[in-house]
Write a structure and sequence with these properties.
Blueprint lengths: L3 E6 L3 H16 L3 E3 L7 E6 L4 H19 L5 E6 H5 L4 H4 L5 E3 L7 H9 L6 E2 L20 E5 L1 E2 L10 H5 L3 E2 L2 H13 L4 E5 L8 H4 L4 H9 L6 E4 L9 H9 L3 E6 L7 H6 L6 H14 L4 E8 L6 H14 L3 E6 L16 H25 L4 E10 L2 E5 L11 E4 L8 E10 L2 E6 L2
Parallel strand pairs: 1-2, 1-3, 3-4, 4-5, 5-6, 7-10, 10-11, 11-12, 12-13, 13-14, 17-19
Antiparallel strand pairs: 8-9, 15-16, 15-18, 16-17, 18-19
Helix pairs in contact: 13-14
């Protein structure tokens, strides 16, 4: 009987792609792989180690697995990914529940690591070169029959003062365009209608391989795939959005008018402390340009509250910006000091103040989002159906990205997952638009 392997994936979309690659390799090697960990011979948890909350989620998951292991409900525990990579010298000693570690440079070695663990080797650990060229590995798609992530690069060269990702994931490495297009065609052949293009910085794509930013060239190739309906872009850095990129987003029927631009702050002094390469004025000018050139565009961003040195004046400027700019989607984070980063060497932050400020920003943004949804009442939009719950279907329009933006609820009958329908929005309940199928 083949060994049963349970899989848990934590953290970001890019990490999920690595999980899906490991699942494919394990399945090809003859293991039964499932998200159900019940009675698993081994459980692999692919961890995040980016900020304190992510680390605590990973540790809590490992401890819970440890209890299941002690009770005989699962077998071995393998910890992969960012937490393992970042704390390779400490994690095994502090978490004796773990039987094996696999770093981010060794996802492709997961079968060897698992076999060694099941055969009783004494706590093997596998850590490859985090700066090595990327392995092209097939995936088992776990997101949806209708959409999937398309990772175009790994690592990061931006070195933001608060971020440890370059030390965990390595330097920025682009995948060859032909490999990306080949994977995109394979995904659409399986019925995928939407591809969400992800990397730590998609605007930098190709700079390392081709000596120039090549995202627009890649997008033109993706737009040529007939079966692909939607292309969504995540993480475009403000200072790298040029006229050519704006043009293709504005003029392509396949690239959804949804742009994820992580600005992090609006005050010039705080942006310099963050080692971001733009000013608040440049951000505001960019937003005006995008809204002028791409009518109806939905913008997502992320902001950080409480960086050391952020005083009341700087915070007030950020608050006023969020209230006035009316960015439709925003993730708000309180500053998390991470050892090994430049920001960690700054003055000790006031965690209570950071938490309070983050909550104030959440309250501001909630009002902006409520107003955005209310303004949609009476409009009609294409919706990708993703499932049914109780008496309603649920899905997403161009304005909702998976896992972060919620659903549009749809009243109707006999709809199929992966089907596109035109929906007339009639109301909003609990922050989610509700609509009827437009005949």
């Amino acid at each position: 009987m083949n060994s049963r392997i349970g899989i848990i994936s934590l953290g970001c979309a890019k990490n999920l792609v690595n999980t899906e690659q490991m699942m494919f390799l394990l399945s090809e090697a003859g293991f039964y792989v499932s998200g159900d960990i019940t009675n698993a011979d081994a459980v692999i948890v692919n961890t995040c180690g980016f900020i304190e909350s992510a680390k605590m989620e990973a540790i809590d998951t490992i401890l819970e697995l440890g209890r299941a292991k002690d009770e005989g409900r699962i077998g071995k525990i393998i910890v992969a990914g960012c937490l393992a990579e970042r704390y390779k010298d400490e994690v095994m000693a502090q978490l004796p529940e773990i039987d094996c570690l696999v770093g981010v440079g060794s996802f492709g070695k997961i079968v060897d690591a698992l076999q060694a663990t099941l055969h009783g080797d004494d706590k093997p650990a596998t850590f490859g070169d985090i700066n090595a060229p990327l392995n092209e590995i097939d995936r088992i798609i776990t997101t949806s029959p209708a959409w999937a992530y398309l990772k175009i690069a790994e690592g990061c060269d931006n070195r933001c003062a608060y971020c440890i990702i370059p030390d965990i994931r390595g330097r920025f490495r682009s995948r060859p365009v032909e490999k990306i297009i080949e994977e995109a065609r394979e995904l659409t052949d399986r019925g995928i209608k939407e591809l969400i293009v992800v990397a730590q910085d998609v605007t930098r794509y190709g700079l390392d391989l081709y000596g120039k930013r090549s995202l627009v060239s890649l997008l033109k190739e993706l737009c040529g795939i007939d079966a692909l309906r939607w292309i969504r872009l995540h993480y475009l850095y403000p200072d790298e959005i040029d006229e050519e990129l704006i043009d293709i987003i504005a003029n392509s029927d396949k690239i959804v008018k949804y742009i994820d631009i992580p600005i992090q702050h609006i005050n010039d002094r705080i942006l310099r402390k963050m080692n971001r390469r733009y000013t608040g004025g440049e951000v505001q000018a960019l937003l005006r340009k995008l809204r002028g050139r791409i009518p109806g565009v939905v913008i997502r961003t992320s902001v950080i509250a409480g960086l050391p040195g952020e005083g009341e004046e700087e915070f007030e400027q950020l608050s006023e910006f969020l209230a006035e700019a009316k960015i439709e989607r925003a993730g708000v984070f309180e500053y998390s000091p991470e050892e090994g980063t430049t920001a960690a060497l700054m003055d000790k932050p006031d965690s209570d103040t950071a938490a309070s400020r983050a909550q104030q920003l959440v309250d501001i943004q909630s009002c902006v989002m409520d107003q955005f949804n209310e303004n949609r009442i009476g409009s009609t939009t294409a919706v990708l159906i993703e499932g049914r719950e109780d008496s309603q279907y649920y899905g997403r329009s161009f304005a909702e990205s998976p896992d972060v933006d919620g659903w549009i609820r749809v009243n109707g009958n006999s709809l199929a997952i992966g089907e596109f329908v035109d929906v007339h929005i009639t109301s909003v309940e609990n922050g989610e638009p509700i609509g009827e199928i437009q005949k």
